[in-house]
Design goal:
2 copies of one chain form a homodimer. With 348 residues, chain A is α/β, with parallel strands linked by helices. In chain A, strands 1, 2, 3, 4, 5, 6, 7 and 18 form an 8-stranded mixed sheet that branches. In chain A, strands 10-9-8-11-13-17-15-16 form an 8-stranded parallel sheet. The longest helix of chain A is centred in the middle third of the chain and has 19 residues. In chain A, helix 2 crosses helix 3, helix 2 crosses helix 4 and helix 3 crosses helix 4. The first copy, chain A, contains 11 helices and 18 strands. In chain A, strand 4 and strand 5 form a beta hairpin. At the A-B interface, helix 1, strand 4, strand 5, strand 6 and helix 3 of A face helix 1, strand 4, strand 5, strand 6 and helix 3 of B.
Chain lengths: 348, 348
């Protein structure tokens, strides 16, 4: 039997290899480069197929497939969301993803995406803040100190120059974990005992809590003029974090309106609540922040193009490194019509 | 760093391991067992989520995701269809698939599915023929001698007791390949020089040609009373094999009508062309073959539940064998909120 051809082997990046690749490049550098790659793809937003994600809901959670394509490369991500997993010591969100050539349909990369999604979510937040946050912002409040918190803090530091992080979580152990993980990062980190205390002096407020319910992490009176709100945690139907009065005052920016109206903070608002598409701000077609008193809100739910960008980035950065293994996942008979002959010869 | 937990490792079946597993069980036994597993799932058809496949079309072909779930197990298949691949020595169709637990969203099996799709397609044809073909059928004509041909022949032998296979393809080299591959199978194999010659005396006519176009492999005058037609090749918009006059005479059976009306032979017919769902015949809720002169037609396009069954079968049959490798694809921090800590510790 002949060995499989090059096309039949798909590079696979395991969790361990993803971690080694990230350290090989450097976490902050990955976040900066990812921010730029995602921004480059947002600039050519109109070249992408945009399908709403394909969700399979159950009592315990959701499994989603998120495909997109730019006509040359196709990507999809498999991702679940199971809030009760945490109680069993399992991840609430796990993910993996794939890139394929549109011209042949052959996969060219398979990779873990739990870590990669955390990185791309933080990079997307930093990209939005680069266009929307007050110039010279130095302090971010981080409300919800779960799996996403450190990535958000480092992305805001590396991309925007944030120097101070003010933490709050209903579980002080979560805050302790972030304090510990960010020691030595160069950030001034302050643990606070309330949301109200955390947002003191912050130009950017990031909310990223995990409960699958309508919650009010921020009330209207807490949000002063001029801040940028980076709302990560309200990201599926029935799950929000902000009081609707904040939305009534804010200028709201979104990834893909048909998805955000169902999954984002704005699911609380009327169907004609005005939103601005972030890609149009990046291209200069729409205004971002245009006065100092304005409250800007990035109502982030995560979109397939961000995963496409992240996968494309990993594929490029993988070249010349040892951080992958080849998977024999594509059947590759010498004569493409002779699949059965390949099987028969494997017996010998 | 701790080793990943059991849940974080996903069994992966490579092409090589799939071939070894199939030989370990025996090809014909795999086909018989798969037929029974698919039939068992068709019997509980109404328990499944049925989503039309999510297709990304391009000039060269299509990439599709086919998800389904029975409420306990979720599956999806990635599959491409690129007719021009053959000219480059690549497979027209390649596939892989995944099973996951609905309750946690964690994947439990990742496998090649190019071979597995060929096996499940043949098993589905045999299942349909078991309910629709004339009793005691001994001879099958096989028009189109590509990658699917030998699997069809062996499934019809193993499940129905077919003894004679009559082959025709516009390319005699394809026919030679099937003759060679089926020597020693116990089937009487006859190479024919026309479709007309191939169907002589056949109680079952299987059509499985590859061109992406409206073709007429069978014309009305070729099809005698009482035969069962197993139409595999007309399986996407713009691709059919049978003349519409045959459809006008036949009793037509389908997997999932909303998909077959777009992709199957019946795309040629009016929207109200009558079809019977195969699962209802299997359950005894609708009539299958009810007289000897009737022409029955299984207008097969392939459906996600068949892949679900095939994946479930492989998962069961894999237990206790060495035919898989564990992939570290799920990030598994000791504390699920401490994804960053896991990353940081991997540096040391």
């Amino acid at each position: 039997m002949l060995a499989p051809s090059e096309k039949a082997l798909v590079p696979f990046v395991s969790v361990e290899n993803m971690m080694q690749l990230v350290h090989h490049i450097g976490v902050e550098r990955v976040l900066v480069e990812l921010t730029d790659v995602i921004e480059a793809d947002f600039r050519r937003w109109e070249t992408f197929d945009k399908t709403p994600r394909v969700a399979s809901h159950s009592r315990e959670g959701v499994i989603e497939l998120m495909p997109t394509s730019d006509g040359e490369i196709y990507s999809f991500k498999y991702v679940n969301g199971h809030p009760k997993n945490m109680a069993q010591g399992l991840q609430t969100v796990t993910a993996f993803g794939l890139l394929a050539e549109v011209s042949t349909g052959y996969p060219v990369l398979l990779t873990e995406m739990t870590l990669l999604t955390a990185l791309r979510t933080a990079a997307t937040s930093a990209m939005a803040a680069r266009h929307l946050a007050p110039k010279g912002a130095k302090t971010m409040a981080m409300i919800g100190n779960g799996a996403q918190a450190e990535f958000q803090a480092l992305a805001m530091k590396a991309v925007l120059g944030i120097e101070n992080i003010r933490l709050y979580d209903i579980d002080p152990k979560a805050t302790d974990k972030v304090v510990r993980n960010l020691s030595g990062s160069g950030l001034n980190v302050t643990a606070c005992t309330s949301s109200q205390a955390a947002i003191e002096g912050a130009e950017i407020i990031t909310t990223c809590t995990a409960d699958k319910q309508y919650a009010t992490i921020l009330t209207d009176n807490m949000v002063g003029a001029g801040v940028h709100i980076n709302a990560i945690g309200g990201d599926c139907p029935g799950k929000t974090e902000l009081h609707r009065d904040i939305l009534a005052r804010a200028s709201t920016f979104v990834e893909y309106p048909p998805q955000t109206r169902v999954e984002g903070e704005i699911q609380q608002m009327e169907a004609d609540y005005p939103v601005t598409e972030l890609w149009k701000v990046i291209l200069g077609e729409e205004k971002g922040r245009h006065n100092a008193g304005q409250i800007t809100l990035f109502d982030s739910v995560g979109f397939a193009i961000e995963d496409f960008s992240a996968l494309r980035y990993i594929r490029d950065r993988l070249k010349g490194t040892p951080f992958y293994q080849d998977l024999d996942i594509i059947a590759d008979p010498d004569d493409s019509r002779d699949l059965f002959g390949m099987l028969a010869r494997a017996r010998d």
